[in-house]
Amino acid sequence: MSSPESVTSSITVAAENIGGIDSTEVRLQPGVNVLTGRNATNRTSFLQTIMAALGSRRSSLKGDADAGRVELAFDDEQYTRFLERRDGDVVFDGEPYLDDPELADLFAFLLESNEARRAVRRGADLRDLIMQPIDTDEIEAEINTLEAEKRDLDERLEQLAQLDSELPALEADRATLEDEIETTSERIDDLEADLDAFDLDIEASRERKDEIESAFADLQDARTELESIEYDLETERESYAELERERDELEAELEAFDDKEESSDRLEGRVQELRNRKRSLDTTVSELQSVIRFNEERLADDGFDIDLDESDEAATGDGNDLTDQLLVDSDDVVCWTCGSQVDRDRIESTLERLRSLRQRKLSERSDLQERIDDLSDRQKELRDRRRKRGEIETRLEAIEGDLERRSQRIAELEVDLEEQQARIADLESDAETFENTEYGDVIDTHRELNRLELELEDLEADRDDVQERIEEIEGQIEERSDLEDRRETVEAELTDLRTRVDRIEANAVDAFNDHMESILSILEYRNIDRIWIERREQTVREGRRKVTRTAFELHIVRTTEDGRTYEDTVDHLSESEREVTGLVFALAGYLVHDVHEIVPFMLLDSLEAIDSNRIADLVEYFEEYVDCLVVALLREDAEALSESYTYVEEI
To answer: Which residues cross the membrane (predicted)?
Structure first.
């Protein structure tokens, strides 16, 4: 934003194609400048010109122009702004006075369309308007960040509380498993002691015992390997079945595609054909509009003007007679195509037919556009379906390859399973040869020992899993203290920031109320004693959450004829009272936010709701704050203003 500067020299404002202005150049002076005249004399458009040069984007381009420009010159500085119509929007360029016109748009450019005045008229919440120029964005952003962090902390602490509740059950499971492990280990120790106690002292018996132990060790290893093969085989079969299900779903989805779908190229040809027809219709509509506009203008001027020179008068013999004939009241006009007199109704009838034809062409063009949109959507749908079909076919090829590989693997595992089962059968058969009266007890002991050793491995694995989960939870719970400390810190920071925002909001509201009271005392309205803003809390919903937000509500204090005061709201005010209230609010904003330090101009318009004397008092009050005050008034409303002001009557 440019640094503020005082206006000490005359001010030149030039404009082309702004609002209703074709071209103008006006000289203003420091102090108060009064634009006077009747309505529809481009006073508001001239104010928009100044706004544009100062940096506002709320100026309008002339309706029949594609480009416009404004220039503002004072104190050896010149500010230029260009406006251009592009794709239905007005684009601004150039070097204005302000880089950021937000504050000036709100409280210095006080036209009828001013946002602050309009907000009061419709009874809107004024908080955003009052706080918008105050730099609380950084505080609000920090509050939002801390609120998000607090929500994350709350969720994490809740998760930790749930994890903490799991610990007793997990610890009980661990204790149960350790008891079972201890019991099983003791049983294994007993069985090993029993084996050692068997009387096989002779060398042959020792060798036989080694054979028995070796046979059962081999049998145990074989059973362990069998379990591994069975697990791998089950896993492969489940994967194979899942792939088959996916294949069936994809094949069903593929069958739903229509092999006789419409050609995308054919659709493109139809779209191009319709677009060509639409372009032709655009040309026709444009030409019809030009013809209609031209004829309407001609009809408004009663055809061509006919100038009679001296030779014409001589030919008629009596110029006065012919003039009298032309001045006789008639519904005829001079045709601008053939020069003859034609009944106005006939021309208007022709114009109406042209308008009807243009409307039909517009309707036809609209229908064509709908068809183009439908066909374009159909093209996109076909492309999406083709892409989806290709993805399905690619995935099916991958699935078929995967199924083939898994089928081979399943076959290999089934062979391994049969071989392992056969091997176990052989080992069991070998073990049975030892089952005689001499070694029967030894064999039974070995069998029980093998079973218990496998069971012990499973118990220890389960205990290790439970222990790992307990350690994981305990590790996470250790951070709870730090999280709780951080949450307290975040809560304290949030309280401090919110208190800071509360103080800023309260100070802003107090300043507005003070200045509105001062301005209202100048106007001296009998039916409005006071205008003031109440700051209150309200609960609103943001998504799924309910949050507390501050609202600024405008109140009006009135006095009845019997001297009783009561509060009212904007909804109950008359139209003129709303206009006055909106203006008072906007003017207070100018003073609260020291707008004169940002931009040396104030623009006032649409003051019809205030009488001439009050306007004069208001202008005199603000004259001391602003270097250049430009006010647009009707002649009768300007009568009470000082003659020392600069008056502009032509724009």
So the answer is: none
